[in-house]
Design a protein that fits this description.
The structure holds 3 protein chains of 3 kinds.
Chain A (H helix, E strand, L loop, with lengths): L4 H4 L2 H37 L3 H16 L2 H11 L6 H9 L2 H27 L3 H9 L4 H31 L11 H12 L2 H29 L9
Chain B lengths: L1 H16 L9 H28 L3 H16 L2 H16 L5 H27 L2 H9 L4 H16 L1 H14 L11 H12 L3 H36 L20
Chain C lengths: L1 E10 L2 E11 L4 E5 L6 H7 L8 E6 L2 E2 L6 H10 E4 L11 H13 L3 H14 L15 H13 L5 E5 L7 H16 L3 E5 L3 H7 L2 E6 L2 E6 L1 H6 L4 H12 L1
Parallel strand pairs in C: 3-8, 3-9, 6-7, 7-8
Antiparallel strand pairs in C: 1-2, 1-4, 4-5, 9-10
Classes of the chains: A mainly alpha, B mainly alpha, C alpha/beta.
């Protein structure tokens, strides 16, 4: 039995694999954007005075943290389309609904985790910073923009990065709903070529290298944007 | 809405215990069995890994760090396929989906539980280790009698949280047709066909109830441990009872 | 300049401020003394609405602090009151210079170059010009507090409030901050100061307000207060202090 993973990266198989890789990256990126924006919303709502809104956010986070991500994907892919009107179903099926629904499911799930990380970052600040900002006459939005959020995001960065890498890995779950990302593609190649070991090796290498890249990128970001002298105060 | 109740009424047994006793165990019972077994069996491996990480011997530290890094770098699905492929090769015969899932979870969780135990060991005051050695205990005795009992007790809430993660991870057994809760729900969906939302809603609600209950339990446990330790005049920084978000895997 | 009329404050059922009626005149330096929990910090924090009062009225430079409801006006008020915190509360992600220019640029709308000039002048005044590019994490406590004073001064407030500005400092750094405050007082700044530094109070204050249990128990000049306080609580307070 020959060992030649490189040959798998060429021709028809190669096309499948690289298409899978690009889908994985697109899905991860879109879901990440959705999750970040949603998480900021959730974190800000959590800070308001209205108990009803706060409880809604708490319920949102509790649901997404206690239900497996795979099940959440299934609810979105199998369950939700049954609820929407038929026209929308047809429209969705025509425009690659797997990608869209996977993006929504993963994005909403991660938003819960990101919002908790941002909350922890905000808590790490202490009341003095917002008092100082308000004492200078900055508005609520102004103090958020210039003083609070820059610091909170820096404090939250390690947890946010670690959860982002998890988001990337979770894209593999989309294979269960038929999205042709890396894992799905590699299974196709494997079932056709019977070169299981090489296929799995390629997929593992792709995932590992992307994770390592993300970690290196975040190291660079945290060095570039670190608070100089932090730890003394 | 009424369909919800009729589905529950017709299929509760399948969802809860699978086709037992006329067939293999399944559903929620299988999920919990798989999770509990995984946690118990991953324990020895994790303790060894944690000891390797804290041993100070560079080769051991690097090896165990590499193990943890690789396992945490690949998705669980990928690991399932690796185990499904490699284990039969190694032991010469095919194994069931259940055994595959069990092995996968043991390996996957070892990377995370080892980190929890490591944090627990490192959070103990240096004095504990020194006192043990000063009494003449060797490395093994010191860890067995002094370090590990304390560290493990302190990490109980974290372990419980990790158990919740394992419960969520068992849902991936669906991909290789392991008869756990998610698979059972998809079977029901295959029979009923017309009410997918209700079925998957029940599935999500089932996981939510179980996981939420254990999470609250972990929270209560953490508070009572904190109170106990504060009462004994414990000084120094608090032991991180819950693993940091970086250490808790989500599935 | 700052007028308190029958100000009262409760924290739940705890009566934190009782019937405070007093006035800080323009150019006056008032030092608040008293045991911990007497309400000194609470009182000073009501002036820029970091604490709310339930009854009474506070006027700042003719502006009614207590009756302002709209957020816009509260921000305007705060931009005109200079406040220095015990914990400095500098913004650690910005340099000293940026800390000082933040409010002038984003609240007053000054142009960046103009704000920088102003900031450099102020940093010079507090003796921190050479550290304008440093970050708070690189500065000592005394240096940070001096930057904090410059930051408050950058908004050109008619009055400055100091909430135990030296209590969080190591003893050898207290002097540099107090000398900045002394210079400010000599330049005619209206100041309200909560402090435990008795010598500072004796030398710089025009008035001493002694507080205990949420009330201003005695108001007098430093000469009178330190040699011959009338109230027995004040006497006990001074006796305790001199024992150390």
């Amino acid at each position: 039995m020959s060992f030649d993973p490189v040959s798998l990266l060429q021709g028809q198989y190669g096309q499948l694999i690289f298409h899978g890789l690009s889908l994985t990256i697109e899905l991860a990126f879109c879901a990440w954007l959705l999750a970040m924006v949603l998480a900021m919303f959730l974190a800000i709502i959590r800070l308001t005075d209205r108990p009803l809104l706060r409880r809604l956010v708490i319920a949102y986070v509790a649901y997404h943290r206690n239900v497996p991500t795979l099940v959440q994907l299934m609810v979105w892919y199998f369950g939700i389309p049954a609820l929407v009107p038929e026209q929308t179903q047809i429209w969705m099926a025509r425009y690659n609904s797997e990608f869209l629904l996977a993006m929504i499911a993963l994005g909403m799930c991660q938003a819960a985790y990101f919002s908790e990380d941002i909350r922890a970052g905000l808590r790490a600040l202490g009341p003095g910073q917002s008092e100082a900002a308000r004492s200078l006459g900055l508005t609520y939005l102004g103090s958020m923009r210039h003083v609070i959020l820059p610091q909170a995001l820096r404090h939250a960065a390690p947890a946010l990065v670690s959860n982002s890498i998890l988001l990337f890995k979770n894209t593999s779950l989309a294979m269960a709903i038929g999205l042709a990302e890396i894992t799905y593609a590699i299974r196709e190649v494997e079932s056709d070529s019977f070169r299981t070991f090489e296929c799995y090796l390629i997929a593992t290498a792709l995932y590992l290298s992307c994770s390592l890249l993300l970690m290196a990128g975040s190291s660079w970001i945290s060095r570039r944007y670190r608070i100089i002298g932090a730890g003394r105060i | 809405m009424t369909e919800l109740f009729s589905i529950l009424h017709d299929y509760w047994k399948l969802l809860l215990i699978g086709s037992y006793p006329r067939g293999p165990l399944g559903g929620l019972a299988m999920t919990l069995l798989l999770s509990a077994l995984s946690l118990m069996l991953t324990f020895p491996l994790s303790v060894l890994l944690a000891l390797a990480r804290t041993s100070g011997r560079v080769s051991l530290v690097r090896l165990s760090a590499a193990w943890v890094a690789v396992i945490r770098g690949i998705p669980l699905v990928m690991l399932i396929f690796w185990v499904y492929f490699l284990v039969p090769l190694l032991i010469g015969r095919n194994i069931s989906g259940f055994a595959t899932m069990l092995c996968t979870l043991i390996i996957y969780e070892s990377a995370y539980i080892c980190e929890i135990i490591r944090a627990g060991i490192q959070a103990l005051p240096q004095g504990q280790h020194e006192a043990g050695r000063a009494l003449g205990l060797n490395y093994i005795q010191c860890h067995l009698r002094v370090i590990l009992p304390q560290a493990l007790f302190n990490t109980l809430p974290s372990m419980l949280n990790q158990f919740v993660s394992i419960i969520k991870e068992t849902s991936l057994g669906y991909v290789i047709n392991v008869q756990e809760l998610t698979f059972a729900a998809s079977q029901v969906n295959g029979q009923v066909l017309t009410f997918p939302f209700q079925i998957f809603f029940i599935l999500a609600a089932g996981y939510f109830l179980v996981c939420y209950a254990f999470t609250r339990l972990a929270h209560l446990l953490e508070r009572s441990i904190q109170r106990k330790r504060l009462g004994q005049g414990h000084e120094g920084p608090p032991v991180p009872l819950a693993a940091s978000p970086a250490d808790v895997p989500q599935v | 300049m700052i007028i308190f009329s029958n100000v009262q404050k409760w924290y739940g059922r705890y009566h934190a401020l009782k019937y405070i009626t007093a006035e800080v005149k323009k150019g006056e330096v008032v030092v608040l003394l008293g045991p911990s929990g007497s309400g000194k910090s609470t009182l000073i924090r009501t002036v820029n609405r970091l604490e709310e009062v339930q009854e009474g009225q506070i006027l700042f430079d003719g502006f009614d602090v207590t009756s302002t409801a709209r957020h816009q006006d509260v921000n305007e008020l705060r931009s005109r009151v200079g406040f220095v915190f015990q914990q400095f509360n500098l913004f650690p992600h910005m340099s000293a210079l940026d800390n000082v220019t933040l409010a002038p640029i984003h609240v007053k709308g000054l142009k960046r170059s103009h704000a920088r000039e102003l900031a450099m002048t102020l940093l010079e005044r507090v003796g921190m010009r050479h550290k304008a590019g440093s970050f708070p994490g690189q500065l000592s406590g005394g240096q940070q507090q001096r930057v904090a004073i410059a930051r408050a001064l950058a908004m050109e407030p008619p009055a400055m409030l100091f909430d135990e500005p030296t209590s969080a400092l190591d003893p050898e750094m207290v002097g540099e901050v107090l000398s900045v405050m002394r210079d400010l007082a000599n330049d005619g700044m209206t100041m309200m100061c909560v402090t435990h530094e008795m010598n500072f109070a004796r030398e710089v204050a025009d008035s001493i307000w002694f507080m205990d249990g949420g009330e201003i128990v005695e108001k007098s000049t430093p000469e009178v207060f330190f040699s011959n306080p009338t109230h027995d609580r004040a006497q006990r307070f001074l006796a305790d202090r001199s024992k150390r």
